[in-house]
Amino acid sequence: MTLKTFGFDQFGFLIFSLQWTILLTVIALIGGGLLGFAVALARTAQLKPVRIAAATYIQVIQGIPVLMILFLSYYGLSLAGFELPPLVAAGASMTIYASGYLAEIWRGCIQAVPKQQWEASESLAMTRLQQYRYVILPQAIRISLPPTVGFAVQVVKNTSITSIIGFVELARAGQLINNATFQPFRVFLAVAALYFVVCYPLSQLSRLLERRLHAGSSR
Amino acid sequence: MSYTFQFGVLAQYQDQILSGICLTIKISVLSIVLGCAAGIVLSSIRSIWGGTVRFLVDAYVEIIRNTPFLVQLFIVYFGLPGLGLRVGADTAALIGMTINLAAYSTEIIRAGIEAVHKSQIEAGEALGFTRFQIYRHVIIVPAIAKVYPALCSQFVLMMLASSICSAISTQELAASAAFIESQTYRSFEIYIAVTLIYLVLALALRAVLAVVGMWLFGRRVARRTMTALPEVQA
Fold first, then answer.
1. Rounded to an integer, what distance in angstroms lies between the CA atom of residue A191 and that of residue A197?
2. CB burial class (10 A; 0-12, 13-18, 19+) of residue A57?
3. Cβ-contact B191, A74 below 8 angstroms
4. Domains within chain B, CATH numbers bracketed
5. Helix A66-79 × helix B187-217 angle, to 10°
6. How confident is the model at residue A216 (pLDDT cuts 50, 70, 90)?
7. At what angle do helices A8-43 and A137-158 cross, to 10 degrees?
8. What is the pLDDT of residues B27-82, one digit of tens each?
C-alpha cells in the first residue's frame, strides 16, 4: 500500500474546509457583535450595577482561554440535555469569545466620543435613545471600524481552536490530511498559507481604515 | 436537567493539576522573557537598518500575526522532525510561543519607537549623547514605557493561549484537565475548576507585570498596566 501524497485533491479539501472556517467566523462576528454591542451599552449605562456586571463579564471572558470557553460550552450544553453538532458548540463558544472582546473595543469607541457631544445633544432635549441613535453611535461606529476589522483577524485565527473538539474546519482538515499523507511540513505550510490569504487582506484593511480615520480627524 | 455537581472527585487529582499549573507558568514565563527580548532586538534592528533587514523583520511579523497559533505549533511539532530536527512537546510549545510572542512584541515596540518624537532625539544630540546613549535613554526605554501596558496585555493573552499547546500533547494545565476528564468523566466540573484557575493566573500575571512595571518605569505606567483591564468602577 502506498501513502497518498499532498496533491490537488488534498488541497481542494483544504479549500473546501476553509468555507467552514469562514462560516464560523461570520457566525462569531454576527453573534458576538449583537451580544457584544449589548454588553458595550451596558458597560456605558447610567446604572452602576449594570456597568459593574458588564465589566465583570468582559473581565472574565478576557481572563480565560478560548479553549476553556469552548470546552465549557461543549460539555455544558450537552449536560443541559442538548445533543449538539460540533458546529453549534463551536459557534456558541466563538460568539461568547467575540462578544467579550468586541464589547471592550466598542466601549472604548463609545467613550472616545467627546463628552461635549453628550452635553450638546442633552441640551437639545434628546432622550438617551435619541442621543445614541443620532449623535453618539454614528461617530462611535466610525472610530470602531479599524479595531473591529483587526479583531476579525483574531477571530479567523481562533476558529482554528475549534478543531480540538473535532469541528472540521481548515486546521482540522490539515490534521486529517497529515494523518493520511505524513507530510506535515507541506500540509501545515499550505494550511498556514490559506489562513494568511484570508487574514492578511483584513489586517491591511484595518490599517488602511486606521490611516483614513486619522487623516480625517487631523484635518 | 438533573445533574449533580461533584467537585469532590477533583481533590484526588491535586498533583495532576499542580504539575499542570507549574508547566503553564514555566512555559509562559520563559516565552514572555524570550519573546520580549527578541521583540526588543528585532524592533531595534528594524529601526536601525532599513532595506532588506527591515523587510525580513516585517515579513516575519506579518506572517506570524496572520496565521493561527495552533498551526504554528503544528509546524514546529510535526513539521520540524521532517527536516531532521526532533523536538519534544514542551520544547515545541516553548519554541512556538516564543516565535509567536516575538512577532507581537516586535510590532508593539515598533509602534512605541515610532512614537518617539524627532525633537527628543535632537535634544539628546544637543546634550552631547553618543548614538548608543541616545538609543538607550531617548528611544528604546521611553518607547517600551509607553507601550508597556499593551505589551502586558499581549503577555496575558499568550499565557492564556498556552492552553492550546495541549493539542500537541504538552502536559500543561489544559492537558491535565483533559487527562482528569478522561479518568473521571466529570467534564463540566473539571473544566469549571480549570477555567477559574486560568482566571486567577491571568489576574496574578497582570499584577506581577504591574509590579515589574512600577519597578522599571514608575507608578504611572504601573497604574496604566492594571487599568488596561476593564475597570470595574467606571
1. 10
2. buried
3. no
4. 17-225 (1.10.3720.10)
5. 160
6. low
7. 140
8. 999 999 999 999 999 999 999 888 899 999 999 999 999 999 999 999 999 988 87
pLDDT of residue B226: 72
- Residue-wise pLDDT for B44-57, tens only, equals 999 988 889 999 99
Taking an 8 Å cut-off on Cβ atoms, the answer to whether B68 and A158 are in contact is yes
| CA-based R_g, chain A, Å | 21
Query: Which residues of chain A are within 8 Å of residue B177 when distances are taken between CB atoms?
Result: 71
| pLDDT level of residue A105 (50, 70, 90 thresholds) | very high
Count of beta carbons in the 10 Å neighbourhood of residue B30? 14
Supply the DSSP symbol for B212.
Answer: H
Burial of A151 (0-12, 13-18, 19+ CB in 10 A): buried
Residue among B12, B13, B21, B72 nearest B202 (CA): B21
For testing contact with chain B, the best of A21, A64, A205 (most B CBs within 10 A)? A64
Q: What is the ipTM of this complex?
A: 0.91
CB atoms A184 and B82 under 8 Å: yes
Contacts of A81 in chain B (CB under 8 A): 1
CA distance B189 to B127: 63
Q: Do B78 and A64 touch (CB under 8 A)?
A: no
For the cut 50, the answer to whether the pLDDT of residue B233 exceeds it is: no
Distance from the first to the final alpha carbon of chain B: 38
Place of cell 472574565: A60
How far is it, in rounded angstroms, from Cα A5 to Cα B154?
Answer: 38
Say how far apart CA B95 and CA B165 lie, in whole Å: 11
> What one-letter code names the amino acid at B25?
I
Domain boundaries, chain A: 10-218
The residue type at B234: A
CATH no. of A10-218: 1.10.3720.10
